[in-house]
Amino acid sequence: MNQPLPTPCNTGSTIRQRGQHEVFCGLTSIIWLHRKIPDAFFLVVGSRTCAHLIQSAAGVMIFSEPRFATAIMDERDLAGMADMHDELDEVVEKLLERRPEIRMLVLVGSCPSEVIKFDLGRAAERLNARYASRPRVLCYSGSGIETTFTQGEDNFLAALVRGLPGDIRSGRPAQLVVAGSLADVVEDQMARLLADLGIEDVVFLPGRSSDVLAPIGPQTRYVLAQPYLGATAAALESAGARRIDGIFPLGEEGTTAWLQAIATTFGVSASRFEAVTAAPRRRAREATAHYRPWIEGKRIFLFPDSQMEPSLARYLNRELDAEIIEVGSPYLHREHVAGELAMLPPGVSISEGQDVEVQIDRCRAARPDLIVCGMGLANPFEAQGLVTKWSIEFAFTPIQGYEQAGDLAELFARPLMRQGLLSGAASPSRRVAS
Amino acid sequence: MKLTMWTYEGPPHVGAMRIAASMTGVHYVLHAPQGDTYADLLFTMIERRQSRPPVTYTTFQARDLAGSTADVFKTACRDAVDRFQPEALLVGASCTAELLQDDPGGLAKTLDVDVPVVALELPSYQKKEAWGAAETFYRLVRHFAGGVSRPSEIAPNSCNILGPTALGFRNRDDVVEIRRLLEEHGLDVRVVAPLGASPADLARLPDAAFNIVLYPEIADVTARWLKKTHGMPFLSTVPIGVQATRAFLAEARAMAGLPAMVDASNEQERSTWYAKSVDSNYLTNKRVFIFGDATHAIAAARIASRELGFKVCGLGTYMREFARDVREAAEQYGIEALITDDHLDVEQAIIAARPELVLGTQMERHIAKRMRVPCAVISAPVHVQDFPARYSPQMGFEGANVIFDAWVHPLMMGLEEHLLQMFRDDFEFNDGAAASHLHETGTAKAPVDAAPIIMPDAVDQPVGWTVEAEKELKKIPFFVRGKARRNTELFAAGKGIQPITVETLYDAKAHFAR
């Protein structure tokens, strides 16, 4: 079941596991996507389970009325007593009556709709024709048999790129596409830095409104801001764009390397790069230093969740001096994370996929100081006296870029600080300012 | 196909998980894709349990569909039995696996695992969570208590408690409260199931004289089956509220062959006196809208109406299985029950009913919040905050005390209603003054006129007010001004009056005073 696979990097073999996976499915990325693009609405075509999943995982009960919903298939649909396409059209009509402000309607495929091969592409085409693209209708699959957590965003962005309507291709082509949703505050910081570096016509994908996307062509370069965007990268490349290779913008080192890769591509001078990044680099190092005493020397185990784990591990190890026991990832895009894996210290265990029970055994045996894991596992670990960090926070908290480097460090430090507070233990190796 | 933004109930396999997680020695192998593993967090994060629910998901993937998902299931089954060594194995499929038609029950039987296997058929596209829980409990009881024979000598005061589950609304504390009450009255509680029971305990169910059904949604089917099969009578008065608790105890004593109570008073019980006390006067005929599971909704209506002196202006449930009971209850209050699982219908009904208090689930809490109507949660589905650290039962006399506090506190602004009437010109109580606990920053603006509390749909366009009428409206204390504005506008719209004058304002006041 768990066979080692050879990898090109220096981190030893990868543990590949089949067995129970304890990772959210791609539907859950709707939770941040709907906030990122306020004029879009996500309609899951699925089962009661899908509706319950999004409700529970999102804690959506905090919103009065979210910009996502589920078209729950029932027995009539499956028994062929009703034409599912007619049924879907009715649901969409009802939805648009209620929410006429929707400018982009996204049909999201789920496990059951994939298994019965319900053709959402055809439905989207039909609805686009019917509503004359007002709203524009897109579709992608967020099903758990094909995607994990963040891969839902990947499929959505790929659909956005592929769904670029021909008529807006007439505008000025993008020089640089930054792909992968970032918190608005991070996006603004990145946009300022890129502008200061003299890079023009930068487009963020996804944009904050559904209709802003400049044409992409052979002159376009793209850079990934998130490591989980295999399908998006393929879609961008098939539109002619070329990837700028780099590690991901987590921490001072990651952000600098990421910007440097862009700067090099666009021929930004070393002096300009230095001038633009010197101050934020200093701030990032300063902010991170506050938390290093809590984390340095600590042994950390990362369960698979968002595919950001290799980048998080690299940051933990190189900027906070943590010891990494295992880096789990639901999937490794070997090309996109090659840089990250190469920077991990030799001998770190890397696992792809999981058999959660076996992984829990490994984790318990290692007695780490901090476990980064999903919500289903965290409290049971805490109950055993192990300290955990919910991995979902890395998907929801702004952590990319210089100004967030300290926040990222704090996410890891907080459970350890809390443990210190509650157990009455003294502060870490050095006294921490405030 | 049905459009839904919120759902009151999960799928039936989540109901089955609730039973598995309630019990000891049971493990559930669920044929399901990886997305379905989210359900774990209902127990670990929402209920804050210390252990994962005893469920192994097969988490099959797309690439498995080309091969044999049945083999994936069999491997998961074997591994789960080896690892967890349960006393009983539940097997079933979630909605996606149901489409694959792998037949988990049949497959598990071929495995020759040395553990009793209970196969679940939970039609995901027809049924929902509570049904799934009830069905799972029934299947388990049938399996373990089906073949056993009832002893010939049974102590008449022995009973079982059926129905409490993991994720149930305050079930954990209800069981403690009810068990204590029963034992104080000389009853011998043998098995509580499913919460805390093992398969062996289920086999002991027929050893008691009778059953007590605390939550009919979960245990009704099982209790009926035990009656039919083993001749066990059951009691299904739900002891929520003082009067129902008294009735419950009287029935339990009668069933146990104990003499009737001479004095039914309980010194811990305070809610009756609190409700009678003079400062509860303001509660008189407060309009309350109730929606939830059938047990809690029906009980809430009874307490609201008979024990607190509220006026029930809406009553409903999302559980179609119990529609008849809720309809019957609603008739007693002269209203029509709302039976729907569409929260938008509930929202419409709340708007139309113009309540002053909403008692509902987390969904109604948010509807009420949006409408700025006080609200208390009385039923699942619930939020992490509905698993409080403190002891907080809903059942028994202590439960009635808890309910009094939980429902009356959101209305506390109302408690000040009559006091503020008396002190309306006081500098501290005018609407420009800050809250009294913020006296140091006296210039801070109080949240003035949070109205309109409810914008009724009937009012298609905003109704204009004359300057004088607006001035007069301002003389009404701010905390009831929203209601006055709303009522006046509703009245004006109904009569086609435009604009609203001082006259209209007082006409409306007279009209609504009734």
Structure notes:
The complex is a heterodimer of chains A (434) and B (514). Chain A is globular, with a radius of gyration of 22 Å. In chain A, the strands form three sheets. In chain A, strands 1-2-13-12-11-14-15 form a seven-stranded mixed β-sheet, with helices on both faces. Chain A has a four-stranded parallel β-sheet with strand order 4-3-5-6, with helices on both faces. Chain A is α/β, with parallel strands linked by helices and 434 residues long. Chain A contains 17 helices and 15 strands. The longest helix of chain A is centred in the middle third of the chain and has 26 residues, at 270-295. Chain A has three domains: 14-21 and 285-423, 3-Layer(aba) Sandwich (Rossmann fold), CATH 3.40.50.1980; 26-147, Rossmann fold (3-Layer(aba) Sandwich); 176-284, Nitrogenase molybdenum iron protein domain (Rossmann fold, 3-Layer(aba) Sandwich), CATH 3.40.50. Chain B has 21 helices and 14 strands. In chain B, helix 8 (171-184) crosses helix 17 (396-408) and helix 13 (294-307) packs parallel to helix 14 (323-332). Helix content of chain B is 45%, strand content 12%. Residues 438-460 of chain B have low confidence and may be disordered. Chain B has a five-stranded parallel β-sheet, sandwiched between helices. Chain B has a four-stranded parallel β-sheet with strand order 3-2-4-5, sandwiched between helices. Chain B has a four-stranded parallel β-sheet with strand order 7-6-8-9, sandwiched between helices. Chain B has 514 residues and is of the alpha/beta class. At the A-B interface, helix 2, strand 4, helix 3, helix 4 and helix 5 of A face strand 1, helix 2, helix 3, helix 4 and helix 5 of B. Strand 4 of chain A pairs antiparallel with strand 1 (2-4) of chain B, so a sheet runs across the interface.
